[in-house]
Write a structure and sequence with these properties.
Helix content is 52%, strand content 23%. It is of the alpha+beta class and 180 residues long. The longest helix has 66 residues. The mean pLDDT is 89.
Amino acid sequence: MKLSFKIFIVYLIFTLGVIIPTGVSVYISAIHFVEEQIKNGLKEKAVHIFDKMDRVLFERYSDMQTISSDPIFLDPKATLEEKTKKLIAYRNQRKVYISLSYYDKDKDGACIKKADTNGLAIGKPCDKDSIWVREVFNEKHISAGSDIQYSEELGNKVIIFAAPIMDKDENLIGAVTASV
């Protein structure tokens, strides 16, 4: 055997025995490092997204508290036109709502839409199977986006935020809803 062939065999064995395993090891570690970086980046983005969603939900919840406690909705002498104007003022101020509506509770306990910022479906009864109706009219608490539905009037999917309107004796007299 020639010396050059022997050197080539030694080099080949060295390459196969040392350099290739080292290269594979570095490659595998780099893959794990990149995967970990991607996981951490996605986790951080998810935390930020959930934080933003939480803030939006809190803002809408706070808006519902404010709107439902407005004196105009508690005043039995206030006209539907005045209530509609107030809802329009809230909608124009916040600029996040597609529609704001006022529902009245009739003698039988059913809710009827009495005012809407878009003037849609006035006089129409509530869907008793709707989540927000159960939460507001039965459980008497704010429904903070737990109802997502297709609005035929608006022609779009909407998230419903709703709040009960309670008189000074804590009796339910109606509700306000916001469609986002």
